[in-house]
Design goal:
6-stranded antiparallel β-barrel, 31% strand, alpha+beta, elongated
Length: 258
């Protein structure tokens, strides 16, 4: 389920299809990815687990199905398609963005959070998490996001073990380098991540990455981008052209301490 669904709760309950209600406990969580694992003692006869899919097999346009309790309407089933893959959503200032999300036009509303997004084979390929609406209303306009099941798989073992989840980070703010920007900054390369700021006491600072601005406050108060920042061209030989690519590589290929 989603961490925001269960965080701060005094008690947890799970209602099964036959109407029976069972107490649940939170086993572990990954707040940075808005994920949590809860556990129940299964009833006599057990339960059938849903199979987990793989978003690497997913394509834009594939049919998907969302299950949840929108507005308290239990076991609501909606359908749509994959609108986009690899989306990044920033919940707010100072928070870690949710990355590699699935965007869908399947109707998702308040109460769908934590429910499964499934493919046409019935495999869970995402956890319905949030919706976007430019009007500010919490109602569906055809843009919803799900945390991918691949993201959940990476931290699932640690969550089941009740271990604290930590994520690799670099500690930079960067800008996608374009030929026009490279010309303005008099750079010899035209693709990569231009390092705009480096956080204090961050891995990037310890590694000696040099930012364009000496501080975040200077970056906020200056409308133009000065020369002098480093350019990150690749990670482990894998080219990167924007911050999302860089962060996704760290999330998927690296662990804290590497």
């Amino acid at each position: 389920t989603n961490y925001h669904v269960v965080s701060g709760a005094d008690t947890l309950e799970v209602t099964l299809a036959d109407g029976s209600t069972l107490p649940a406990t939170m086993v572990g969580s990954d707040p940075a990815n808005d994920l949590a694992v809860i556990r129940i003692d299964p009833p006599a006869g057990g339960l059938t687990a849903a199979s987990l899919g793989d978003i690497d097999q997913l394509r834009v346009g594939d049919p998907v199905f969302a299950i949840g309790n929108p507005f308290g309407l239990e076991a609501t089933f909606t359908e749509g398609i994959v609108s986009a893959l690899g989306r990044t959503y920033s919940p707010g200032s100072g928070t870690r963005p949710l990355r590699n999300m699935i965007q869908t036009d399947a109707a998702v509303n308040p109460g769908n959070s934590g429910g499964p997004l499934a493919n046409c084979h019935g495999e869970v390929i995402g956890i319905n998490t949030l919706l976007e609406n430019p009007t500010g209303q919490s109602v569906n306009v055809g843009i919803a996001f799900a945390v991918s099941i691949n993201t959940a798989k990476r931290s699932l073992a640690d969550m089941l073990a009740g271990q604290a989840i930590s994520h690799p980070w670099l500690g930079i703010a960067g800008r996608e380098l374009t030929p026009a920007l490279a010309q303005d900054l008099n750079l010899s390369v035209t693709k990569g991540v231009y390092v705009v700021t480096v956080a204090q006491n961050s891995p990037a600072q310890r590694a000696g990455l040099h930012p364009a601005f000496v501080s975040e406050s200077q970056a906020l108060n200056d409308s133009s981008l000065p020369p002098g920042g480093d350019v990150i061209l690749a990670v482990d030989g894998t080219p990167v052209t924007d911050v999302d690519q860089l962060a996704n590589y760290l999330d998927s290929q690296k662990r804290v301490g590497d």
